[in-house]
């Protein structure tokens, strides 16, 4: 057993959220001691874990990137290796890498009211375990399970003689040259894989039960390039970032307020990029309204171009069962396949799968309500990071990190040690924390905290509102209870 360590803030996860928090802690709370625990041996989270062909962001990097560090690459919709380089450079530039402890997997955490500390059990890279004592616990481990993605239980899968791969566990040096490939799914992963693989495969097919809204966006932002030529770097980045935040918000509002008009607009957008006579209504016209699920972006229309060139096909049908050489569909059609890629989604896992308790009582997030989308009622000195579902993830997380630092400084000024969100005494109606129709979200809702129907218990998805509340609004309100003496 390694001796105990005592910290002000313990951060779980060295991905884009954890590195961002490290910056704000160093900038706004330089007196605080902190460490970032990373179970793997490198930083980057998602962008280091996933290795499938063509992996990229489906958000522009002027909003997905950090507010404090300009994104300078010409690609606005960027490949994973560029994003990973950007995160690593940020960690080095601001000295955040000195606070990371690799190979440290958090096993369990218990809040001790007596000690006013989180007691966090950690397994280290050398196999030894230690307990870290921390005044605050901040979970920046993302929202999905790293160990495994979601794969439905397909009938007859054992009969299939080809290879089956989930993108979350892409085999190194997988050779798909000249093979017949079927990608099951139509989300961001599937629409990335199809054009990235098409030049090497004999043919590649996207097999979907339900279409997804997909739009082409320029890989390079022409206005960003113009601003960079004529303005100082930080000013250009700030203006492009604000422009993109505004456009994202306006388009989302348009889709919410005028769903039929938005549907027609997207359909017309897709029709321009596909061959004449292509059945758009069958393959690219979902039964739900735009932004009821996340809208997929394809840079420079690469997916549509691959279909137009005849290198890829889209099949909208249901799988009946697997056969030795492919997939039998319920329509009676058979899709021949040498390789099947199950781009069927993620498994949600909040809090990084850590077993949490308060004074020895096991904590179940599904029984709690989120305060400002970042804390949970009756759980002291604990923060978690969940980004936007209708915009870039990092926009929300950046504001949340700033607000957390303001809270720490407020408590120091008041000489307070413990902060606990508490629900109104008269009770409050609750609803799911994420009002989002994606399958991976719907499967996980019982395990996620709820949200309330009034502030500050609402999980807001509006950057401009959050900017007022999290950046400029008061940190103390009727939802928070402060106790104890600073030690």
UniProtKB/TrEMBL annotation:
<keyword id="KW-0560">Oxidoreductase</keyword>
<keyword id="KW-0285">Flavoprotein</keyword>
<keyword id="KW-0503">Monooxygenase</keyword>
<protein>
    <submittedName>
        <fullName>NAD(P)/FAD-dependent oxidoreductase</fullName>
    </submittedName>
</protein>
<comment type="similarity">
    <text>Belongs to the FAD-binding monooxygenase family.</text>
</comment>
<dbReference type="InterPro" id="IPR020946">
    <property type="entry name" value="Flavin_mOase-like"/>
</dbReference>
<keyword id="KW-0274">FAD</keyword>
<dbReference type="InterPro" id="IPR036188">
    <property type="entry name" value="FAD/NAD-bd_sf"/>
</dbReference>
<dbReference type="Pfam" id="PF00743">
    <property type="entry name" value="FMO-like"/>
</dbReference>
<dbReference type="Pfam" id="PF13450">
    <property type="entry name" value="NAD_binding_8"/>
</dbReference>
<dbReference type="InterPro" id="IPR051820">
    <property type="entry name" value="FAD-binding_MO"/>
</dbReference>
